[in-house]
Design a protein that fits this description.
The protein is mainly beta and about 900 residues long. About 10% of the residues lie in helices and about 50% in strands. The chain is built from 6 helices and 35 strands. It is globular and about 105 Å long.
Length: about 900
């Protein structure tokens, strides 16, 4: 719009000059009487031509990359694991890095020399799976069009081990002979004896003989189109559209149940899923987004600017795969409704996220007021979100769930309806040259109008009824576990006022008061109020010193915390652990937060920039023996040093340290009930524990400490100014997590003195079995660590322009040489030795902490370790 205005202004000046010249002719006629009649010549017409610019960078890449990580290995693992091999998955996480030729980027620009039309084309990572293309075309000052297409990959694993057929589809299969062979080993698979060891060895042999390599990851293909029209200087119209397809496979766990508790021919038994089967879940969905807006800018009666803007946003998500059916690797002809020892579903089913859409309308108005250089902006938005896909039938083996009802009438879908209303207001004012004020008010209402649906029972993990046994003939789950769904909703109000005061030229103070209130529906509390105060100081006493520090303190408090009244009663659910579990997002909280930074130049060539901060969250114990998060304390400190020598050498180095400590508490659940269902070691006195909460003796704790070290360094050296530059970069990042677990103090069983073993939240041993507490959790969980290192050096040689011209080329030519070395090292006890099958018996073996490993199957896909080197030679050309 600026160029358009300049063109119009130039035209007006030309017309005015012409008029003045014509008016002046009579006055000069007498002077020219003795001369020939003047000949007026029109100014030469402006010659409009087209300009062309462009450039590209292309070359050849040599890559020494890690292997896929898939392959056999000697026993006892039988497969490569993160401890025995690297994998290229993390190295390729956001795009393949393959050896060979490459075109890093290409840019073509053209337009008219009068500035009316312009075209700009960019291509990046051409031919790679992370490629992108964009074309901008514009009649400058009038209309603009931009179209683009890009890909975004996300590699998860190149080392996954897979037994399924039909990968990428909605039906995963296992060959019948494999299913039959695995099913035949199930009767003894969990036994802690010689027969169990033989069965597990046979299962492992069968699985290992039928595994194939599998790449896990997703790919996003996105097309965009944006159009803008500015017919006048005060009107702006925009329309945007995007279409994104996501495809691929990712790991997902599916549970199934198995039990040998009942002999053949006895009454049916109910079993909850205890064994996972990890599958390659297909990903196939489409997301479309539409936006249209119009803005008008005008002038108020008092001479200031005002504007109004209306916007429509639409988002439409379509799940192209609604569910995944899986043949259970361990069951071909298992029976589900009898006490047969091979009990379990032959088919599993996983429901995927449903299709949904959202539509929003937004209006924004802004006006500059005639006093205090103030401005007021208000925004109103109304958003509707809908989802009514048909329920996925998770009963795949004859199990029948009682119908989902609303008001006693069966329904087939959620009829999800959530509306959101936002009203946001911001007022800013420059009270004086040294005082600025900002006041904000915001109201956000989530109105969940989804009906509260009722179920009398449900299929738990596609393997059994949530409570009770199914009818042996019809397979219908009994109406013994009724529940109501709860359409959670809330209203949030925010009000704040902030002010800054420039006391003197080099000193500025500021602060504010913030209030936030939640009114919640179907949550453990009715309302929460949080008040926060913040202050800061900005100091710049000398040209070479700048410091800034801030501190804030906030308190969040609930009005009534009553899980039973607000959640359990309307949801028809009771659980002593649920009622005792504090939700950290609604619990009372005290928060301290501070930040400080300094920038100091002790010498013209040296800059020091230290910084520090902390975030201290504590959750006061306002409910009896609260479980969950109890405190979250973190702090960080670091420094950056940079130097410049004679404009030819620059050096930067920085170090950052972060420390975080979390204290959590958990209940041991039913682990402290003996065979007579007597709660042992926990107070059940009505005065102390009227609702039979798990007491302090039945609470275990974990103290979690996370540490992060990050070092970065970079050097820029103009070896030969304007001819040869050299840049070197290095990054070192190390993170670790250490857990200290404290088991419960309650006795294991009535009449015993051994404590803690049966009360650590992870283990429930049979009555009468005593174990050395030191063996629980291996004593403690080992520390987890991850270290990333990257070294990069780039050399650039700028070819002499005279040589370029001698070669018949007009432009800039740069030769580039790059060397990169990367290493990622990860230590994680949960995945270091992960294999597709984990042959462990079930408790009561006191030295075994894993339940159900003998009937589970994994993809063993996670391996973030790698070491890689890349050498790239390229030429960069611009014209």
């Amino acid at each position: 719009m600026t160029i358009r205005s300049e063109i119009l202004r130039a035209r007006r000046v030309a017309l005015l000059a012409s008029a003045m010249s014509i008016g002046a002719l009579p006055f000069s006629a007498a002077l020219a009487a003795d001369q020939a009649a003047p000949v007026l010549k029109a100014p030469p017409a402006e010659v409009v031509t087209w300009y062309f610019f462009g450039g590209f960078e292309a070359g050849w890449r040599f890559v020494d990359q890690p292997p896929t990580g898939f392959g056999p290995a000697p026993g006892p693992a039988f497969w490569l694991t993160p401890l025995t091999t690297d994998s290229r998955a993390k190295f390729w996480e956001y795009g393949e890095i393959r050896p060979g030729p490459f075109l890093d980027w290409l840019n073509l620009q053209t337009g008219t020399t009068d500035g009316r039309y312009a075209f700009d084309f960019w291509a990046r990572n051409v031919g790679r799976d992370s490629q992108s293309y964009n074309l901008d075309a514009s009649a400058i000052g009038v209309t603009y069009l931009s179209v683009g297409w890009d890909q975004t990959p996300h590699f998860i694993s190149t080392s996954a081990k897979n037994i399924f057929g039909g990968v990428g589809t909605s039906f995963l299969t296992v060959p019948d002979p494999v299913q039959a062979a695995l099913q035949g080993q199930l009767p003894n698979a969990a036994a802690a004896n010689a027969a169990g060891a033989t069965a597990r060895a046979n299962i492992e042999t069968i699985i290992n003989a039928n595994l194939n390599p599998l790449f896990l990851g997703t790919q996003r293909d996105k097309a965009t189109a944006d159009w803008r029209w500015t017919p006048t200087d005060n009107i702006d119209i925009r329309v945007d559209y995007s279409h994104e397809d996501r495809t691929g496979v990712r790991p997902t766990g599916v549970s199934y149940g198995y039990t040998a508790a009942a002999a053949a021919g006895s009454a049916p038994v109910s079993s909850r899923p205890t064994n996972p089967v990890e599958i390659p879940q297909p990903v196939d969905d489409t997301t479309q987004a539409v936006a249209a807006s119009g803005e008008y800018v005008g002038t108020t009666p008092w001479g200031t600017r005002w504007s109004t803007r209306a916007v429509y946003n639409g988002s439409f998500y379509d799940a192209n795969i609604k569910q995944v059916d899986i043949e259970n690797p361990f069951c071909l002809t298992c029976t589900l409704f009898t006490g047969n020892i091979n009990r379990g579903p032959n088919f599993l089913r996983l429901g995927l996220p449903p299709s949904n859409d959202a539509n929003a309308g937004t209006w924004t108005g802004a006006v500059d007021l005639p006093f205090w250089k103030s401005r007021f902006v208000t925004t109103v938005q109304y958003n509707t979100m809908r989802q009514n896909e048909s329920f996925v039938d998770t009963g795949t083996n004859g199990l029948v769930m009682p119908p989902v009802t609303f008001g006693g009438i069966p329904v087939n879908g959620l009829d999800g309806r959530v509306d959101a209303l936002l009203w946001n207001n911001v007022y800013t004012a420059q009270i004086t040259n040294d005082v600025k004020l900002t006041v904000r008010g915001r109201h956000y209402d989530i109105d969940n109008r989804t009906p509260s649906l009722h179920i009398d029972n449900w299929i738990f993990g596609d393997s059994g009824c949530a409570a009770g046994a199914p009818n042996a003939i019809t397979g219908v789950c009994p109406a013994t576990s009724p529940r109501n769904s709860l359409p959670i909703a809330y209203t949030k109000d925010n009000v704040s006022a902030e002010a800054t005061w420039r006391a003197i030229r080099w000193l500025t103070f500021g602060g504010g008061v913030f209030w936030e209130r939640y009114d919640r529906h179907f949550r453990d509390v009715n309302t929460t109020d949080e008040w926060t105060g913040k202050g800061f100081v900005d100091i710049n006493p000398l040209d070479n010193v700048h410091a800034r520090a801030s501190y804030q303190y906030g308190q969040r408090r609930f009005d009534i915390y009553n899980t039973a009244e607000f959640v359990e009663e309307p949801g028809i659910l009771f659980s002593e652990v649920v009622e005792n579990m504090r939700r950290f997002d609604v619990a009372n909280r005290n928060r301290h937060k501070g930040e400080a930074m300094l920038e100091w130049m002790p010498a013209p060539f040296l800059t020091l920039s230290p910084n520090a901060g902390f975030l201290w969250d504590d959750y006061p114990d306002d409910i009896f023996n609260p479980l969950g998060l109890r405190s979250d304390h973190g702090w960080n400190a670091g420094i950056t040093v940079s130097t410049v020598f004679n404009s030819t050498f620059k050096l930067m180095a920085s170090y950052q340290y972060e420390d975080r400590k979390l204290k959590t508490a958990g209940g041991s659940g039913g682990a402290n009930f003996d065979t007579g269902n007597v709660l042992t070691g926990c107070s059940n006195d009505a005065a102390v524990n009227p609702d039979a909460f798990l007491g302090t003796d039945c609470t275990w704790r974990s103290d979690i400490q996370q540490r992060y070290h990050t070092f970065t360094g970079a050097a820029d050296w103009k070896v030969v100014p304007s001819r040869f530059d050299l840049r070197a970069e290095y990054v070192y990042s190390r993170g670790s997590e250490h857990n200290v677990t404290t088991p419960c103090s309650a006795p294991n069983f009535i009449g015993t003195t051994s404590v803690g073993v049966n009360c650590n939240g992870l283990q429930a041993l049979s009555a009468g079995v005593l174990v050395d507490p030191a063996s629980v959790n291996f004593g403690q969980f080992p520390e987890e660590r991850n270290t990333l290192q990257r070294f990069n050096v780039i050399g650039k040689y700028y070819v002499d322009p005279s040589i370029v011209r001698q070669m018949g080329w007009r432009g800039d030519v740069t030769l580039k040489l790059r060397y990169t070395w990367e290493r990622n090292e990860n230590t994680n006890w949960a995945t270091d030795n992960m294999t597709p099958y984990i042959p462990t018996p079930d408790p009561p073996n006191p030295l075994v902490e894993l339940t159900g490993g003998s009937r589970s199957l994994f993809l063993a896909a996670f391996n973030p370790n790698y070491t890689a080197q890349v050498v790239a030679v390229a030429v960069q050309v611009k014209w």
